[in-house]
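Teaching note: in complex prediction, the entire set of molecules is handled at once rather than each chain in isolation. The prompt given to students was simply: 'Predict the structure of this complex.' The entities are:
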Amino acid sequence: MKTMEAAELTEKISNCLKEGNIEGVKEVLLSSHATEIATIFHSLDPADRPKLLSSLDTETASKIILELEKGQRQEILSGLDPEYIANIVNEMDSDDAADLISELPEDEARVVLAKMPPEVVKDVVTLLRYPKDSAGGIMQAELVQVTNDSTVRDTINWIRLIADEVEDFYEIYVTDITDKLLGMVSLKKLVLANPLIQVGDIMEQVPVKVTPYVDQEEVANIFKKYDVVSMPVVDDEGRLLGRITADDVIDVITEEASEDIYRFAGVQEYIHPIYTPILTKVRLRIPWILLTLFGELLIAVVIVHTFKPTLERIAILAAFMPAIMATGGNVGLQTTTIVVRGLGMGTINIAQLFQLIFSEIKEGFFLGVICGVVAAIIGGVISMNEPEFIKLAFAIFVSMISAITATSFIGAAAPLVLYKLKFDPAAASGPFLTMFNDIFGSVVYLFIAMLIF
Amino acid sequence: MKTMEAAELTEKISNCLKEGNIEGVKEVLLSSHATEIATIFHSLDPADRPKLLSSLDTETASKIILELEKGQRQEILSGLDPEYIANIVNEMDSDDAADLISELPEDEARVVLAKMPPEVVKDVVTLLRYPKDSAGGIMQAELVQVTNDSTVRDTINWIRLIADEVEDFYEIYVTDITDKLLGMVSLKKLVLANPLIQVGDIMEQVPVKVTPYVDQEEVANIFKKYDVVSMPVVDDEGRLLGRITADDVIDVITEEASEDIYRFAGVQEYIHPIYTPILTKVRLRIPWILLTLFGELLIAVVIVHTFKPTLERIAILAAFMPAIMATGGNVGLQTTTIVVRGLGMGTINIAQLFQLIFSEIKEGFFLGVICGVVAAIIGGVISMNEPEFIKLAFAIFVSMISAITATSFIGAAAPLVLYKLKFDPAAASGPFLTMFNDIFGSVVYLFIAMLIF
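The expected output is the structure of the full assembly:
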């Protein structure tokens, strides 16, 4: 449905733009949500995009800019006047504004900031201080804050004053005069309260809060655990700095999940299969591919130098290499996935490092025995016409167990060690694991075969 | 920090339970949040768990039950009296209650429902009608609804009446007397409004709504696009049925991302590496592993029956099989990941099916040529002492291009076709792809080699 509409709208707009009918463009766009407009934008001829944007009011333009993918956004921004960018940024929440400014080249960012109202600049610059993927990086400065001696009526009057600036909020934060967070009052409670009572008397405890340097993945886990839709950010002294809302967390979770998935697959970042130019796509994909290729060619070197005589004598050995490598690879991938996802979701505790690794090795051995028995029997049957098929089956059995146990060990240990060293555990997965496993699996198999025959 | 605390608390509680000191247990638990208690629960001796639960009030117990993993929850519930379960379920929002009841054996569910207040049962039974992973399955019936002719004062009085039942809400839905949704009033607006005005006069349009059979992944995408924290669910006639809140959507996104990731890795569902019994773990992991193993043993059959003479003559051919299989596998995995994730996030449009597949084939060919050249050169150098190393390099070159182009095609086409047929596109990834790719890669390589030599 939605895509059909978008396609229709795109055509209408293209036609209007061709005819120079800016009023027509506006008419079509005014009936659409910023998200739909961003979709239309996507499918427009790049040359038409600045025209479209400049035909819109700054509020709508700012929403569209935020909906675009990063690459497209940067392309558009580079063609716009800093003054116009400043107007657009003014319309954004402070967290989005900070993100957008951090994407600009430094000198341009400075020009844009110079053209913005000083009180907004203050908020944005504060946010720019924190890493982009920390609680401070995803919080916004816009919130409703009152001191504990304010009455409910004072609070409502204050809300009336700042209603335009703070668009969506669900609770009022109560602080002392030094900004120290004391509690909160939900809007529901405020609606029901006696206007003359002090908010300090009806406030509740904040269920959970964070400090600004907490990682955004940890923030997402807190939202999941506590089922909140917003959470305050405080400094080490407990002073209120900002708040994080559920819609930001939804973006974080999506982003982190995508990152994990891409890393598993050896893709460096999101690539749109149609809109990304082919050379960019190749550049983003080729590093891991070549790395794997080099790793696998190492196997070729080892085989040529060490196992060639064995293979010449028992050519059929080659027939079972794929089975050993692939099965080991699968088990290793399962193990890493379970460990990486567990670390990401906070269900695995790093204190149990050794218990975890040991448990995976044990399980790997178990799986190895099952696969070893199956593969040895089938392998024996397949090669029954060979004179030494019993020895072959035995080599398959032993190397299957070794390969699967080893990849289980590496599959669990590599992400845990990376995590402990504060690297991203997902880096241990995908191509790296395939490579390790293939090298280990084929060499062990041929080595065992060489010993047996 | 948090895990340290949990470990300490667990020890304290274990000691109290050993001494039969229930008051001590309560004292420790009263100072902790339900989430922490669930963590403690996790690390307790299974025999102590029912004791702990029964020492708590039903509200806390209901929160803990919801925080547990499904397997653990079912274990606990099976040991509890239906009347106690009914009390616990009564404390939950209708969506959580429906989820929990759907996890119970049918006869037990009926007993529990019979012990619950009829008005709650009505809501729960309505929710049970919708698939668990649809908008209707994740919505809750608790919301604040008033007719358009109510004044602001009426609305506030109504909120006062139902404040206990509807815990968190951020807007009031405005309907006509047939429950048809007309608009909404944010709590912020309600706080600021004249008490005598009718809500119909201050209501805004609902930015977005869904019907109950929309898939939960689509619901999550709508939340992401529109940056809302709650959304109404209406039937085909526009009558208000319930609402979905951001915290439910956060759970959906996490669940869907996990599902995608597990499917990539050939794991059927979340497995906790330490708490899941080893036989369960093996049972959940072995199907894909054995499937891959059988697929790979097919390669062995083909090699033994068709390519043995070629391999006997040129044993060194085996040395390059891993490189061709692994590189093709990597490229295919990248392609599927990009396509599956794009479909999941709604950035790929199925109407562009052929354009997409063609674009991936083109890119695969491009990557294939790069890898083919690199592998042929290195392969040639490695095997320079062989009499026919030029032919070998040529075989590597041609089969690298064929394998990578073919896996790019399958990697893009398989998930798209599954999606079009309304199956889960992620099922095309991981083990299935590895298998296809290994079989295709090795057979093409040996076939080309057989032709050349």
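Point out the following to students. Chain B touches chain A through 125 residues (CB under 8 Å). Chain B has 21 helices and five strands.
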